[in-house]
From TrEMBL:
Record protein name field: protein-glutamine gamma-glutamyltransferase
InterPro entries hit by this protein: Ig-like_fold, Ig_E-set, Papain-like_cys_pep_sf, Transglutaminase, Transglutaminase-like, Transglutaminase-like_sf, Transglutaminase_animal, Transglutaminase_AS
SMART domains hit by this protein: TGc
Co-factor(s): Ca(2+)
Family per record: Belongs to the transglutaminase superfamily. Transglutaminase family.
GO molecular function, one term: metal ion binding
Domain Transglutaminase-like: 258-351
Co-factor binding comment: Binds 1 Ca(2+) ion per subunit.
EC number(s) from the headed UniProt entry: 2.3.2.13
Positions contributing to Ca(2+) binding: 388, 390, 440, 445
Length: 705
């Protein structure tokens, strides 16, 4: 008779509250055990009798459809034996029929869902809820996503709320976003994406491979991924990109239907990808770049075409400058690259260009962008161009019935400004431009640029629009233009500002300031235009132009007003589905010297605030009331108002239909809240109407026992 005859397992306790606290996974709203790799967790096994030395007991962990030992997808762990693929197990203590075991997974184990069962001799015990979720571990020094700083891990792995910075370089604002990586079904949605990615078992060990796959799966383009992008302005068959306030609804809906959710634009893609990466345990942050180049030929140049009135033309440009673009940085060591490229890696799930046949982008080492090492994988040329291209302005004039293109100026400094992310542990914007690029004009910048140019072959200075190139060509100058401002003989300088708050329903009052620093008498032809444009740089409406000739004496300046009446823009504003920005473009030409200069500035509309009234603290499971108050201080009725509110751990996403709010009227909505989780929680609110595409606010509350 074998000694183990009769030894059976009668139960397993996964000691969930103990393990999840140790593993920083106690936030996940799921009944299964969630642990991080490379760190011990304990399980209590109950047996039919005491464990003896001769007994054969093993824990089996299987991953995937058909786990097999020789493929590394089935691990058989015996107490106190040599490790198996870097995993080990030991007996912590025996107490009669109870046996406490400690399991340590390998710090480079494949992440995913493991089925656990226990084998005693020939008996097999399958526990209920025996699926264990294994994640990346930034707390483990041997995991390549290890992050030493505690406060950074709190922010980049555990914070389930944050901000995404949008607007324009002239007026940046924060859009609150609920990442919600711990909410119900979000972890399951991420596991579904991992399975759908068809990554090999060894690729699942590698955060670079996983983050690249997730950048592809968050957009729907090749693989029925999470979000369908739409920049058309028509969102009738789905949710307008402006109407989301977080990732939770999107990922829950996707997990339920397994079909792409409609619709996303760049900040939605970045918000969802941030949720997915934090959920899987990879430190991640949303990164916004203002005036980001979307360049279709990696030639480090974006051509902007203006008509003689100084209005930007849509039709001619293949490439564009987006007012802002949002992607993500994920933190890891790059074991596949030479030394020096560890740390933040850029990934981007907004579908722009194919990389290796799929709409995916990254991980690209942020240090490679800064140093100009744009030959490194993945997609470093593309990311480099987004933050380093030059803007070349062309004026299109009719000469003898033919269109001719005249180069007005080149702006080498305006692309890739104010690169922003939420600060660690604080509700403010942190500028991380220096992580992506050296100071303009510094020696390091010049060296980095020369390095980048040795890998990217920019074309000569030829207008790039399809039929423009047939008309006339210019001599190619492939040397990088490193200038502070376009150098002019007169020191010509332009500034564009608003002189009154830009509120819907009021006249838009702006000014163009022309400065000259050289002594003498100067005649300046100034052309100015005002347009409404999408954040992608696409012009939606022409609002008005000015053309003036001014005289400046010596070193002096003059301010020329540009005023647009409400009638000129309100109709467009209330008919578009997207948030639009006010674009002002100025062209100045000094007659005496032929100096030319172009300047453009995008500004956003300013709105009255929403206020949130609620207590500062509340007790777990005790109801409290939260009120949202908005006073319409604008001179225009806001039609079809909707208030969207969400509080993670307090209440699910809720929409209030508010109808029309007349000028001067006050809207008040109340919601009864029941907190289900401890700690600092946030309530996010957003008001949307035909005229205003999003006034957001948020307020924090501390939930105590």
């Amino acid at each position: 008779v074998f000694p183990e005859s009769g030894l059976k397992v009668t139960g397993i306790d996964f000691l969930k509250s103990l393990n999840t606290r140790e593993h920083h996974t106690d936030g996940y709203n799921i009944k299964n055990l969630v642990v991080r790799r490379g760190q011990p967790f304990q399980v209590q096994v109950s047996l039919s009798r005491e464990l003896r030395a001769a007994d054969r007991l093993s824990l089996r962990f299987g991953i995937g459809e058909n786990p097999m030992k020789n493929r590394g997808s089935l691990l058989s762990l015996k107490p106190e034996r040599e490790d198996f693929n870097g995993w080990k197990i030991s007996v912590v203590k025996k107490d009669g029929k109870e046996c406490l075991l400690s399991v340590t997974s390998s710090p480079n184990a494949p992440v995913g869902k493991y089925n656990l069962y226990v084998k005693t001799g020939t008996n097999i015990y399958k526990p209920e809820n025996g699926v264990i979720y294994l994640l990346f571990n930034p707390w483990c020094e041997d995991d390549i996503v290890y992050m030493a700083n505690e406060a950074q891990k709190e922010e980049y792995v555990l914070n389930d709320t944050g901000y995404i910075y949008v607007g324009s370089a002239y007026s940046i604002y924060d859009r609150p976003w609920n990442f919600g990586q711990f909410e119900e079904f979000v972890l399951d949605a991420c596991m579904y994406l991992l399975d759908k990615s068809k990554l090999s078992l060894s690729d699942r060990r590698d955060p670079a491979a996983v983050s690249r796959a997730m950048s592809a799966l968050v957009n729907a383009n090749d693989d029925n991924g999470v979000l369908l992008g739409n920049w058309s302005g028509n969102y009738i068959s789905g949710t307008s990109p402006m109407d989301w306030i977080g990732s939770v609804t999107i990922l829950q809906k996707y997990y339920k239907t397994k079909k792409p959710v409609r619709y996303g634009q760049c900040w939605v893609f970045a918000g969802v990808l941030n949720t997915v990466m934090r959920c899987l345990g990879v430190p991640s942050r949303c990164v916004s770049t203002f005036d980001a180049a979307h360049d279709t030929e990696e030639n480090l140049r974006v051509d902007i075409y203006l008509n003689e009135k100084g209005e930007k033309l849509n039709s001619l440009s293949f490439d564009s400058v987006w007012n802002f673009h949002v992607w993500n940085d994920v933190w890891m060591k790059r074991t596949d690259l030479p030394n020096g490229f560890d740390g933040w890696q850029a990934i981007d799930s907004t579908p722009q260009e194919q990389s290796q046949g799929r709409f995916q982008c990254g991980p690209c080492p942020v240090k490679a962008v800064r140093e100009g090492d744009v030959y490194l994988p993945y997609d470093s040329k593309f990311v480099y161009a987004e933050v380093n291209a030059d803007r070349v302005y062309w004026v299109v004039k009719k000469v003898n019935g033919k269109e001719k293109y005249f180069k007005v100026s080149t702006d080498t400094q305006s692309i890739g400004k104010n690169i922003s992310t939420k600060a660690v542990g604080q509700n403010r914007r942190e500028d991380i431009t220096r992580e992506y690029k050296y100071r303009e004009g510094s020696r390091e910048e010049r060296m980095s640029m020369e390095r980048a140019y040795s890998f990217i072959r920019p074309s000569g200075l030829v207008p790039r629009s399809g039929y423009a190139s047939t008309i006339q060509t210019f001599g190619g100058n492939t040397q990088p233009l490193i200038l502070k401002e376009p150098v002019t003989k007169t020191g010509l300088h332009l500034e564009i500002t608003n002189t009154e708050p830009l509120q819907p329903g009021n006249p838009l009052e702006m000014a163009i300031t022309v400065k000259i620093s050289a002594p003498g008498n100067w005649t300046v032809d100034l052309t100015g235009s005002c347009q409404l444009q999408y954040y992608t740089g696409k012009v939606q409406a022409n609002l008005g132009t000015i053309q003036e000739t001014i005289n400046l004496q010596g070193a002096s300046e003059m301010q020329i007003p540009l005023k647009i009446a409400p009638d000129a823009y309100m109709k467009t504003l209330s008919s578009v589905e997207d948030e639009v920005l006010i674009l002002v473009t100025a062209i100045a030409e000094v007659k005496e010297t032929n100096d030319k200069l172009t300047k453009e500035t995008s500004m956003r509309f300013q709105y009255p605030p929403i206020t949130v009234q609620m207590p500062e603290t509340a007790q777990l499971y005790n109801d409290f009331t939260c009120a949202f108050i908005f006073k319409n201080k604008l001179n225009v009725t806001l039609e079809n108002c909707k208030l969207l509110v969400e509080g993670l751990g307090i209440f699910k996403m809720t929409t209030f239909e508010q109808g029309d709010i007349m000028p001067g009227r006050i809207m008040k909505s109340e919601i009864i809240c029941t907190p289900t989780r401890l700690g600092e929680k946030k309530i996010v609110a957003k008001l949307i109407s035909n005229q205003i595409k999003g006034i957001s606010t948020e307020k924090g509350i501390i939930i105590t026992e």
